[in-house]
Structures are given as structure tokens and as C-alpha cells.
């Protein structure tokens, strides 16, 4: 793996959290949390929500976020009940994610770049393990004040890494976020889960994505 990364010029590997390192609750948990039927476009409404943007950019606290979501989605729960549901949405680390990050850390800087919030960063299942895994190289939207796929978050992260863009490899489960990173000059890949990320790295000898 060290030879493959050197061949591609990579000095830092960053992972998105949700969908790459962290798995979510199975089934229709997300829809039920938002009071929507399983076939409704919950992800699109989530992405469009001003309260998601406010909270994951660090501009409001969790109870303000919850109250806003309750009003916008017409939920019949209290703010603290919504926070409790929201806290449990991430459901631990994918098998193989910690091992991949630890293996890579012997050769390159390893970190994460994620749209996330203080509740999930500090209190989700396996939060301490996740924090320890990425140490000083956790680049988080709620701390940076900007979100993917906006260009500012990539610029701030690259500045913190102090690396040329082509030396940064990035894995994200959303195509638009990977595309924005490629536009910033990074070696970025759209993957789901650590197995796909590992396959990309192991394929560097024959193909650069």
C-alpha cells in the first residue's frame, strides 16, 4: 500500500464520515425520524433544510436545530426527543474502517473531512473511537463554519494540511462532494464504505480514478 500511495504522490488520505467510515441505522429510521413515509424524498428535504445548514455549520445549538426541524417537518415530538432520535441515527463504524485508517496512518497523514455537528461528533455510538482514529486531522463543518460541497471547506482543509492539492486523496459517499474536491485539485473518489475505498487504493497501480 505504501508503494501504491507513493506512486500516486499521495501524502494525506481523508475520509468522509457518514457512509464511508460510519454506518447509519438500517431500514427507514431516517424517514421515521423526520416523520416521512419511506418513499418520500427525505434526503432531498434534509439537504435543503436551513436548520441542517445552520447546525452543521456551527451557527446554532442542538435544541434550536431540533425546534426548527420539528416546525419544518411538522413533527409531534419535543426538541429533546428529536435530539435523542438524531443522536442515535449514526450506528457505529463499518467493519474494516478502523483497520484501513490505521494501516494508512503508517505511511501518510490520515484524517476526516465531514459535514457533521457537535452532537454526532461528541455523543454518537463509538464517538471516542472515531475521534481517536483521526486525532488532530479531523476537519469538521461545524468547526470550520462551511460545508461540502462548497469550495471554502476544501480550501480551509488544504491550508490546514499545508499540502499541494494533488497530494490529498479523499473518499466521500456523495458524488457531488467528491466532484467538488476534484475541482479543488484533490485525488477524490466517490465510494460507499471502507471496502470500496480500499479497492481504489489497491487499484492505483493500474488506474488513477
Secondary-structure blueprint:
Elements: H1 2-8, E1 12-15, E2 22-24, H2 29-33, H3 42-48, H4 50-56, H5 62-73, H6 79-87, E3 90-93, H7 97-104, E4 109-114, H8 118-123, H9 127-134, E5 138-140, H10 141-144, H11 151-161, E6 168-172, H12 175-183, E7 187-190, H13 193-202
Parallel strand pairs: 1-4, 1-6, 4-5, 6-7
Antiparallel strand pairs: 2-3
Helix pairs in contact: 4-5, 5-6
Structural notes for this entry:
With 209 residues, the protein is an alpha/beta fold. The protein folds into two domains: 2-24 and 92-202, HAD superfamily/HAD-like (Rossmann fold, 3-Layer(aba) Sandwich), CATH 3.40.50.1000; 29-87. The chain contains 13 helices and seven strands. Strands 5-4-1-6-7 form a five-stranded parallel β-sheet, with helices on both faces. Helix 4 packs antiparallel against helix 5 and helix 5 packs across helix 6. The protein is globular. The two termini are 16 Å apart.
Q: What gross morphology would you assign? A: globular
What is the SS-derived class? alpha/beta
Helical amount? 40-55%
| Count of alpha/pi helices | 13
* Residue windows where pLDDT falls under 50 for at least 5 positions: none
Q: What's the main sheet like?
A: 5 strands, parallel
Relative strand content: 5-15%
| Series of secondary-structure elements, N-terminal to C-terminal | HEEHHHHHEHEHHEHHEHEH
- Counting structural domains, the number is 2
Mean pLDDT, rounded to whole units? 95
What fold name goes in the CATH topology slot of the largest domain? Answer: Rossmann fold
- The CATH architecture of the largest domain is 3-Layer(aba) Sandwich
Report the CATH C-level class of the largest domain: Alpha Beta
Amino acid at each position: 500500500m505504501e508503494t501504491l500511495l507513493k506512486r500516486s504522490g499521495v501524502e494525506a488520505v481523508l475520509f468522509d464520515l457518514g457512509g464511508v467510515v460510519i454506518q447509519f441505522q438500517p431500514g427507514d429510521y431516517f424517514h421515521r425520524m423526520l416523520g416521512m413515509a419511506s418513499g418520500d424524498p427525505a434526503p432531498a428535504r434534509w439537504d435543503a433544510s436551513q436548520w441542517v445548514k445552520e447546525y452543521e455549520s456551527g451557527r446554532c445549538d442542538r435544541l434550536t436545530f431540533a425546534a426548527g426541524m420539528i416546525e419544518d417537518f411538522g413533527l409531534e415530538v419535543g426538541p429533546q426527543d428529536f435530539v435523542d432520535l438524531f443522536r442515535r441515527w449514526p450506528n457505529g463504524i463499518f467493519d474494516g474502517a478502523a483497520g484501513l485508517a490505521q494501516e494508512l496512518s503508517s505511511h501518510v497523514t490520515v484524517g476526516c473531512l465531514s459535514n457533521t455537528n457537535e452532537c454526532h461528533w461528541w455523543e454518537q455510538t463509538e464517538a471516542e473511537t472515531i475521534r481517536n482514529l483521526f486525532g488532530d486531522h479531523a476537519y469538521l463543518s461545524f468547526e470550520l463554519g462551511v460545508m461540502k460541497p462548497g469550495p471554502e471547506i476544501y480550501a480551509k482543509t488544504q491550508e490546514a494540511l499545508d499540502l499541494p492539492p494533488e497530494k490529498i486523496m479523499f473518499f466521500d459517499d456523495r458524488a457531488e462532494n467528491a466532484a467538488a474536491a476534484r475541482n479543488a485539485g484533490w485525488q477524490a473518489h466517490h465510494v460507499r464504505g471502507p471496502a470500496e475505498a480500499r479497492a481504489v487504493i489497491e487499484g492505483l497501480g493500474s488506474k488513477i480514478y
